[in-house]
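Quick start: what a row looks like.
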Amino acid sequence: MAPARRARLPAQAAASARWPRFAAVLACLVVIGSAQAQPKAFPAVEPFSGTLQKIYTSGVIRVGHRENSPPFAFLDARRHPVGYSLDLCEVVVEEIARHLHKEDLKTDYVPVTPENRFELVKNGTIDLECGSTTASAERRKTLGFSPTIFVTGAKLLVKRGSGIVSLRGLQGKTAVLTKGTIHAETIPKIAQQQNLAIQFVFADDHNQSFETLAAGKADAFINDDVQLHGMIAARDVETDYRVVGDFLTYADYALMFRHDDSEFAEVIRQAFERLAGSREIRAIYRRWFQRPLPSGVSLNLPMSPHLEHVFQLQGLAAD
């Protein structure tokens, strides 16, 4: 029996020699398995600043919108905010979510008026205002603006048969202006420069301005022509009203945000570049200016050469 035991000794020695290597391999497998069981690490996100950090922390972007400024921003039959500016803002919000790595970013819609929109942006109540706001040089001193979204100017809305065809036709008559708009400041000055005795009354929003004209309390409603056409189309009253006169002012519309927020402004600029490069901005324009509004009436307003040029500077792709 002794020789047999001696014959097994070399095999036992080999097994003993292999055990440390097996143990090492087993330990590696355990470590690998443990690592694979750990949750997948997300890519590191650099710290943000200003509005982007506010949005990143809360997970919500607060979008200010007008309720009666068709076709830019107004309420549909379900009282949901819709319009050209809202469609553009939706693309901007998508770009912000991509930049922040937040696929679940929520949008909180906040109604604004011509008067309170500026303060609500400045005090942080809203992060982005999507309406029909003129990006004037004076406003740019205290507020931030996106690239231009529309080019327009002020004209007169009058009742058909009124005989009024220009600002001079309002001599001795009454015109209504909307509070908080740039026209509430500039049009009375223009009338004064032209020595026109026009009485000006002021309404809280565009709906009230229109109703003032409709009730006969004013002879004209002065506002940007595209908004006047939009209000006629939204109400389907083109047989009763008309837009007249030469342009009294010129205006570039833009989305509005807080001043001196370069990081937020850069993300918005990138969103507009993507919009223009993909030709999506043409589709959005056609939807609101060349196709029927919820009322069923269309503005039938092709993109102007001026606006076409502005979008080309932003990288608009050719049709």
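That is the whole record. The domain at 50-151+252-313 is CATH 3.40.190.10 (D-Maltodextrin-Binding Protein; domain 2). The two ends are 97 Å apart (CA to CA).
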